[in-house]
Amino acid sequence: MEDQHRKKKGLMSRLSRKKKKTVFYNQGSNQSMLAVGDEVVTYEDVVRMESSAHWRRPIVLIGASGVGKGTLIRKLINSDHTRFAAVVQHTTRLVHPGEVNGHTYHFVTREEFELDILQERFLEHEEVKGQLYGTSVSAIKKIVESGRVPVLDLQPQSLKRVRYSGLMPYVVLVASPRLERLVVTRRVGPERPTRRRTSFQFII
Length: 204
Ligand SMILES: Nc1ncnc2c1ncn2[C@@H]1O[C@H](COP(=O)(O)OP(=O)(O)OP(=O)(O)O)[C@@H](O)[C@H]1O
Fold this sequence. Notes:
Residues 56-204 form the Guanylate kinase-like domain. With 204 residues, the chain is α/β, with parallel strands linked by helices. It has a domain at 1-46. 31% of the residues lie in helices and 16% in strands. It has 7 helices and 8 strands. A 4-stranded parallel β-sheet has the order 2-7-1-8, with helices on both faces. The N and C termini lie far apart (56 Å). Bound molecules: adenosine-5'-triphosphate (ATP). Residues 63, 65-71, 185-186, 191-192 line the site of adenosine-5'-triphosphate (ATP).
């Protein structure tokens, strides 16, 4: 009996030792979304988190370029605008006629954008043709506060940031169908005039 008790105690103390070993990241503030080092977390406590009336968990899709993430996001949002919403990106590009600030994009100056980068306000950002585009934590939180579920796609390398952003998203990997299916369903049309079979292999 005592032997059994000692065995159990031994197991418990091994578990709690293991738990203590795992703090590799500074998780304190908003500033701390980046890893302190490049260590990989090998163990962490996991709890089930459901969406509630107070916190809608964002849905983040990841997957190869062209697999259909954007298409799925549009379908989901169009299925119920009162429930799901797209995340409005920030950009430094000029406003085009008919575009509305805060609706199409949050239009900001390069100085404002760069300040936001320094303050780690973006989950990810990129420069395309000399203009900056980024997905901010605040744009996602705004949707959550409106009682809707933000739906967005991110690069896999942004997952570490999203992990420490406090957003607690559901992350869904959009896997590709088989090559034969891709060739049939993504037939050449006005949208994709010259898609070759080999280019599908990048999606798989
Ligand atoms: N289930 C599907 N059946 C047929 N065509 C599809 C399907 N899903 C997506 N497509 C088409 O495949 C192309 C790529 O889709 P989409 O832009 O949604 O991919 P993506 O993963 O968002 O790509 P990226 O990350 O490069 O923006 C589009 O032309 C889209 O119309």
